C-alpha cells in the first residue's frame, strides 16, 4: 500500500469530542441542543443509521428525539409532525430519513422543514444559499468530505476535482463546496463519455455513484486524493464505489469503506445541529464546523 489512509472514523471521533466541548459550554448557559430524527417505515439499514445517530447525539450531550412512523403513514400526518417539530423550541435540528415511501412527495416534505432546522441542508432555501455563497446549512456528507480534503491537502485552490455522481444529496453540493474553495470542478455521472480518461485528470476524485468498485485503479491519477462516498452491501460485505485494493497502490490518499465518509456524515450532522442551535440564539458559528 502506497496511499495514505484518510481515517474518517478517527477524524469523526475527534470532531465529536470538539462538539461535546461546545455542547457543554452551551449547557452552562442553559441551552441543550436537540435533534429530531424522523423515520418512516421499517427499512433495516435505515433503522441501523437512525439508532447510531441517536446514540451519538446523546454521547455529545444533545437531546435526541426519535419519531418512528409506519410505512403507510399518510403524507399529511408526516407534514403535521414536521410542523410540530418546527414550532418546538427544544428541537434545533430536524432530519427526515430518506428515502421516503413511494406515496410521499420527498421534495414537498423536505421543503416543509424550517430552513433554520434543516440540518441535512436539503431544503431549497439552503441549496440556494449554498449555491450563491451565503450562510447555509450544508449537507452532511459533502461537508465531511470537504473537511477531510482540507485536512489532507491544505488549500484546494486550483486543484482539478472530478465528482462522479450528480445527486442533490452528494454530487451537486460537493461541487458547490469545492468551487467555494477555488477548485476546478467537473461533475461526471453514469452517462459521461470517456469517464476513465476524465477521472485520470483529477487531483481530487470523489466517487458517489452507488456502483460497487466501479472506479478502477487505472482511472486514478498517481498521487491523487480519492474520496469514496459509496456504501454498497455486497456478498463480500460493505464496499465502496472505488476498487480500494487497486486504488491504494496508485492514489496519494484514500478513504476506506467502512470507516471513511460514513462516520464523518454522522459527525457533521451533529456539527450542523450545533450550528443551528448557535444561530437561533444569536451566537457566533462554532469554530471549524462550518465551511
Ligand atoms: N435525510 C437523510 N440524511 C442522511 O444523512 C441519510 C439519509 N437520509 N438516508 C440514508 C443515508 C445513509 N447515511 C449514512 C450515514 C452513516 C453511515 C456510516 O456511518 N457508515 C459506516 C458503516 C455502517 C455500517 O456498517 O453499515 C461506515 O461507512 O463506516 C452510512 C450511511 C446517511 N443518510
Cα-atom radius of gyration: 19 Å
Mean pLDDT: 97
Number of helices: 10
Structural class: alpha/beta
> Distance N terminus to C terminus?
31 Å
Q: What is the count of structural domains?
A: 2
Would you identify the CATH H-level superfamily of the largest domain?
NAD(P)-binding Rossmann-like Domain
Silhouette: globular
Low-confidence stretches: none
Question: What's the order of the H and E elements?
Answer: EHEHEHEHHHEHEHEEEEHEH
**What is the topology, as strand order, of the major beta sheet?**
1-11-8-7-5-6
- Give a short account of the largest sheet: 6 strands, parallel
Features:
291 residues, alpha/beta, Rossmann fold, 2 domains, 3-stranded parallel β-sheet, 10 helices, 11 strands, binds 5,10-Methenyltetrahydrofolate
Please explain how this structure is put together.
The chain has 291 residues and is of the alpha/beta class. The chain has two domains: 31-114, 3-Layer(aba) Sandwich (Rossmann fold); 140-262, 3-Layer(aba) Sandwich (Rossmann fold). 40% of the residues lie in helices and 16% in strands. The strands form three sheets. A six-stranded parallel beta sheet has the order 1-11-8-7-5-6. Strands 3-2-4 form a three-stranded parallel beta sheet, sandwiched between helices. It is globular. The two termini are 31 Å apart. 5,10-Methenyltetrahydrofolate is lined by residues 48-49, 95-98, 120, 140, 231, 238, 257-259, 262-263, 265-266.
Amino acid at each position: 500500500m502506497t496511499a495514505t489512509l484518510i481515517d474518517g472514523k478517527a477524524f469523526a471521533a475527534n470532531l465529536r469530542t470538539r462538539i461535546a466541548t461546545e455542547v457543554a459550554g452551551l449547557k452552562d448557559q442553559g441551552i441543550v441542543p436537540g435533534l429530531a430524527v424522523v423515520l418512516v417505515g421499517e427499512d433495516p439499514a435505515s433503522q441501523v443509521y437512525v439508532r447510531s445517530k441517536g446514540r451519538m447525539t446523546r454521547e455529545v450531550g444533545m437531546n435526541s428525539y426519535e419519531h418512528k412512523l409506519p410505512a403507510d403513514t399518510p403524507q399529511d400526518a408526516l407534514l403535521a409532525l414536521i410542523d410540530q417539530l418546527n414550532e418546538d423550541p427544544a428541537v434545533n435540528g430536524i432530519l427526515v430519513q430518506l428515502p421516503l415511501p413511494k406515496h410521499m412527495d420527498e421534495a414537498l416534505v423536505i421543503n416543509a422543514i424550517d430552513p433554520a432546522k434543516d440540518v441535512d441542508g436539503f431544503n431549497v432555501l439552503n441549496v440556494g444559499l449554498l449555491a450563491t455563497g451565503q450562510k447555509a446549512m450544508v449537507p452532511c456528507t459533502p461537508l465531511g468530505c470537504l473537511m477531510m480534503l482540507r485536512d489532507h491537502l491544505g488549500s484546494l485552490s486550483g486543484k482539478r476535482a472530478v465528482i462522479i455522481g450528480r445527486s442533490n444529496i452528494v454530487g451537486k453540493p460537493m461541487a458547490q463546496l469545492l468551487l467555494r474553495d477555488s477548485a476546478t470542478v467537473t461533475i461526471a455521472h453514469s452517462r459521461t463519455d470517456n469517464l476513465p480518461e476524465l477521472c485520470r485528470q483529477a487531483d481530487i476524485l470523489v466517487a458517489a455513484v452507488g456502483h460497487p468498485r466501479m472506479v478502477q485503479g487505472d482511472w486514478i491519477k498517481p498521487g491523487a486524493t480519492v474520496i469514496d462516498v459509496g456504501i454498497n452491501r455486497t456478498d463480500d460485505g460493505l464496499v465502496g464505489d472505488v476498487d480500494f485494493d487497486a486504488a491504494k497502490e496508485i492514489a496519494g490518499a484514500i478513504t476506506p469503506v467502512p470507516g471513511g465518509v460514513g462516520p464523518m456524515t454522522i459527525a457533521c450532522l451533529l456539527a450542523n445541529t450545533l450550528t443551528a442551535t448557535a444561530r437561533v440564539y444569536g451566537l457566533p458559528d462554532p469554530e471549524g464546523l462550518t465551511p
